[in-house]
Automatic annotation (TrEMBL):
The keyword Transmembrane helix applies. Residues 16-155, 192-331 form the EamA domain. The lineage of its organism: Eukaryota, Viridiplantae, Streptophyta, Embryophyta, Tracheophyta. Keywords: Membrane, Transmembrane, Transmembrane helix. This is WAT1-related protein. It is a multi-pass membrane protein. The keyword Ribonucleoprotein does not apply. GO terms for cellular component: membrane. Residues 351-372 are annotated as: Disordered. Residues 354-363 have a biased composition (Basic and acidic residues). InterPro entries: EamA_dom, EmrE-like, WAT1-related. The chain crosses the membrane at residues 12-32, 44-64, 76-94, 106-125, 189-209, 221-245, 257-280, 287-308, 314-333. It is found in: Membrane. Belongs to the drug/metabolite transporter (DMT) superfamily. Plant drug/metabolite exporter (P-DME) (TC 2.A.7.4) family.
Length: 372
């Protein structure tokens, strides 16, 4: 993915890319549900997911960037390791552990805390300016809160059934009927809540570190392949130490719907979509990326009703409206903050080199330099 010829083109491309990203990850949740219904251990799924992603991205990175790629530095390797550890191994395993102790609905709802946590971390790292007295800052803050609130409303308030269609398809039930039940951990909402919130913290922190990596090393295919490779080793170690050592789980993970889930999550979600995410972070910053995360719940609600036999309720419709309002409020706020960046770009184009520090903060990490 290359840069557009103008800010307008980049704006449309980044918005479209993030909508696609959320649709793909909504499908990932469906495949998670199907794999679990088939009895697959989720820790094994994570390990295979990043293994497939590495296998897909490594040759792609070699052929796409071999003629222009610069030498890897220790700083790039350390940042890649930290991205894999924070955003892959820790965030994913904490999320799944929290899901096992609570419920899928509860865990999915907590992921909508990522924009708020990212906003706080961005302020702490001075990547984001609150500008509460400026209309753009007020719109950003209000839009972020509306997005989180709408996603919570969509998840926790059901209301009457308003499903516009009658679907008798339930792929999860069909798989559960043909597979032995997978042992589940005893519910513990106190511990599970802590794990889910911790997962949100690491997901938000990963967006910050990811922004630093893309600023340090602009070869996104290579950096993403490095991240996935690091996560593969880390996730496999976690799966063996804290998950399962049952050889059958690892062997059966490459058959049937489990193989389909692994291929989808590894090649498309962790492979292609992480490259898309890295490009969007470099273009618009982590806060812009994180605001789109509530959209995933809307897509999940629709796909779940069509494919898993779940019903749509009034809370889904109300939550969707609030999410869209919040989304456009943040986009409006960010759009009205682009003037300073445009001025710096104009200076560079006119061979008027600005201060080196300002160039780094304005071009590499424009405006709100500071989702899954």
């Amino acid at each position: 993915m290359g840069g557009g010829s103008g800010d307008g083109g980049d704006g449309v491309k980044t918005v479209a890319a993030m909508v696609l990203f959320q649709v793909v990850f909504a499908g990932l949740n469906i495949f998670y549900k199907l794999a679990v219904s088939d009895g697959m251990d989720l820790r094994v799924l994570i390990a295979y997911r990043y293994l497939f992603a590495t296998a897909f991205l490594a040759p792609l990175a070699y052929f796409m960037e071999r003629s222009k790629r610069t030498k890897l530095t220790w700083r790039v390797l350390v940042l890649s390791f930290m991205c894999g550890l924070i955003g892959g191994s820790l965030a994913q395993n904490l999320y799944l552990a929290g899901m096992q102790l609570t419920s899928t609905t509860f865990a999915s709802a907590t992921t909508n805390l990522v924009p708020a946590v990212t906003f706080v971390l961005a302020l702490a790292f001075r990547h984001e300016r609150l500008a509460i007295h400026h209309p753009s800052g007020q719109a950003k803050l209000a839009g972020t809160l509306l997005g989180v609130g709408g996603a919570m409303l969509l998840t926790f308030y059901k209301g009457p059934d308003i499903t516009p269609w009658n679907s008798h398809v339930s792929l999860a039930a069909a798989l559960a009927g043909t597979s032995p039940p997978h042992p589940a951990a005893a519910p513990n909402f106190a511990v599970g809540s802590l794990l889910c919130v911790s997962s949100c913290f690491f997901a938000a922190l990963w967006l910050i570190v990811q922004a630093e990596l893309t600023k340090e090393y602009r070869f996104h295919y290579t950096s993403t392949a490095l991240m996935c490779g690091m996560t593969t080793l880390q996730s496999a170690a976690l799966a063996l130490c804290f998950g399962t050592r049952d050889a059958a789980q690892w062997r059966q993970g490459l058959a049937g719907v489990r193989l389909l889930a692994v291929a989808y999550s590894g090649v498309l979600a962790s492979g292609v979509m992480l490259v898309v995410l890295a490009w969007c972070v470099r273009r618009r910053g982590p806060l812009f990326v994180s605001v789109f995360s509530p959209l995933m719940l809307l897509v999940v609600a629709v796909l779940s009703s069509l494919l898993l036999g779940e019903r749509l309720h009034l809370g889904t419709a109300l939550g969707a409206v609030v999410i869209v309002v919040g989304l456009y409020a943040v986009l409006w706020g960010k759009g009205h903050e682009k003037a300073p960046t445009d001025q710096v770009v104009a200076k560079v184009a006119a061979d008027e080199p600005p201060n080196g520090k300002e160039e780094d903060s304005r071009i590499e990490m424009p405006i709100a330099a500071n989702s899954i």
